[in-house]
Amino acid sequence: MTEFQNILFEKNDGIVFITINRPKALNALNKDVFDEISALLTEIAKDESIRVVIITGGGDKAFVAGADIAYMLPMSSPEGKAWGAIGQGVLNQIEKLPQPVIAAVNGFALGGGCELAMACDIRIASEKAKFGQPEVTLGIIPGFAGSQRLPRLVGKGKAKELLLTADMIDAQEALRIGLVNKVVPHEELIGAAVEMARKIMKHGPYAVRLCKEAVNVGMEVDLETGSRYEGTLFGITCATHDKQEGMSAFLEKRKPNFTGK
Ligand code: DAK
């Protein structure tokens, strides 16, 4: 894969680690960062040997402290709209990636950083992590769908409170309101993300992909339409080798050997 300036990536045993790496600016997001993440995700989506992606932040302070404020300061209205489309596009790419994506939130996840974490399938937070949508303190509103994903995760009332007060919350509060799945000691963060990745990787890769898709699609439509969609995907799994293997293994009291076919 290509060399990058703003992100690091490493592939190990079916897991790809992406590190947003601009620690001097607390990993703030600009177009270059998004272009690099997008190019890497395009490659990852095509690579069936990659089973889970883990995203974290470089340095010891931040996951991502937001969109880059210096980059946004001179933006005109059309430029701001275009910038929003770039960020939303990459976050949608994360959400729709065939493989599950885990955010390992190692510090500040503010503004665009919180939005990035919310686009991931699962969020594991270090006990040092802090979350917030401080856009209104800058005279703007979220632009990478934070006003849309936050209420879907924590409910309308809590989302409005966080968006309107710009309060920064700690990892335990994020856990309490359902913004993160798990909080772990800081030094155990990557280990916890890998442990969860390995748990997912034990299962049929194709089934895992379709499960992610069923939830993503179902959350945006009514229950009946979502259930019908789930039924279609279930039907597809019935045609797979992995379904034969998984069910035979259960009946034969052995571990399944899934191939993703
Ligand atoms: N952008 C640029 N630089 C940042 C940054 C950011 N978001 N956050 C931190 N930095 C830089 C600081 O300027 C500082 O740089 P130097 O002065 O060393 O050159 C360096 O990182 C270290 O930061 P601090 O010195 O401030 O570190 P502290 O530990 O004192 O404070 C902090 C950490 C995270 C509490 C603080 O840095 C902070 O409040 N940062 C800003 C957080 C923030 O407001 N984030 C939200 C950004 S707004 C849209 C599209 C996108 C968005 C909105 C609309 N449209 C298209 C409509 C998204 C908006 C955002 O994300």
Account of the 3D structure:
This protein has 261 residues and is α/β, with parallel strands linked by helices. The chain folds into two domains: 7-201, 2-enoyl-CoA Hydratase, Chain A, domain 1; 205-251, Lyase 2-enoyl-coa Hydratase, Chain  A, domain 2 (Orthogonal Bundle). The protein contains eleven helices and ten strands. The strands form two sheets. The protein has a six-stranded mixed sheet, with helices on both faces. Helix 4 (112-119) crosses helix 5, helix 5 (146-154) packs across helix 6 and helix 9 packs antiparallel against helix 10 (223-238). The longest helix is centred in the N-terminal third of the chain and has 20 residues, at 77-96. The chain is globular. 35% of the residues are buried. The site of 4-(N,N-dimethylamino)cinnamoyl-COA has 24 residues, from helix 2, helix 3 and strand 6.
Assign the CATH architecture of the largest domain: Alpha-Beta Complex
CATH class of the largest domain: Alpha Beta
Q: What is the number of helical segments per DSSP (H or I, 4+ residues)?
A: 11
Total strands? 10
CATH superfamily of the largest domain: 2-enoyl-CoA Hydratase, Chain A, domain 1
- Strand portion: 15-25%
H/E topology pattern:
EEHEEHHEEHEEHHEHEHHHH
**Through-space gap between termini:** 25 Å
- Shape label: globular
**How would you classify the helix and strand content by structural class?**
alpha/beta
Bound molecules: 4-(N,N-dimethylamino)cinnamoyl-COA
- Share of helical residues: 40-55%
Indicate how many domains the architecture comprises. 2
